Amino acid sequence: MALVPLNYYDLLERLPQPGCVICTLVEHDTRRYLDSLLYEYANAPATHVRLRASRGLCAAHSARLADFGAGVLGVTILQAQVLDEVRRLAEANGERTLSRLLGLSAGGSSIADRLEPTEECPACSSVNHAEAGHALALANAITDERMIAAFRQSDGLCLPHLKMVLREIPTPAHLEKLMTAQSEHWTRLREELETFMRAYDMNKTAPSDVGAASDSWRRAMRLLAGRPR
Ligand SMILES: [Zn+2]
Ligand SMILES: [Zn+2]
Q: What does the pLDDT look like over 74-125, one tens digit per residue?
């Protein structure tokens, strides 16, 4: 039997959960990355070098890190490292003195240039890599009987992840399986939106008695936009 990538089982396990399966897996990957950053690597010199180079995590991942209340010490250690780096770069002299001598304000650009990150946010690198692996695995396994059955039972893919999977599709047979199932998801959701709109028109308020359609507008937003990181 050919070697089955681990992502295959991750996908099968997560497909029954609500929403886009790759969004669900990315959320899991993000939590796992931030968790290990705080609890295993906050004191590791290599982590400090990496975070100094990226000038910390990006805004989205910094905001997520703040949610890890129990890891406050780890967050503090990492922020101190990044702040030291930013101060060092901003205070690196030479041009500052020169621009002052010349009476120029152009020194600002050179400080800004030094402050630019030389590496991507490490959480983005790690999660983007994992996300690409999930998309590739789904593209390759979509003709597998268990996978297509689970995908048809799921809520379908959000638009950003559908495009990612489409770019990895290996054959026309895979493409047909994927798009037939995804179209069924879109059709079902469109019908639920219609049911919701009709009931709203009759009640003149948000209907609560339309079953699955009652949160169709929320699911439609997630299915079109994907989940924030
Ligand atoms: Zn998604
Ligand atoms: Zn990031």
A: 899 999 999 999 999 998 765 555 555 555 556 788 899 999 999 999 999 9
Domain ranges of the chain: 6-225
d(CA 36, CA 41): 6
> What is the CA(222)–ligand 2 centre distance, in A?
20
Dist CA 126 CA 30 (whole Å): 8
Tell how far the Cα of 36 is from the centroid of ligand 2, in angstroms: 15
Measure 115 CA to ligand 2 centroid, in angstroms.
17
Give per-residue pLDDT as tens, 175-192: 999 999 999 999 999 999
Closest alpha carbon to 181 in 141, 212, 136, 221: 141
Contact 37, 47 (CB under 8 A): yes
- Range with lowest mean pLDDT among 99-113, 135-149, 170-184, 214-228: 99-113
Distance of CA 143 to the CA centre of its chain: 26
Q: How far is the CA of 159 from the centre of ligand 1 (A)?
A: 7
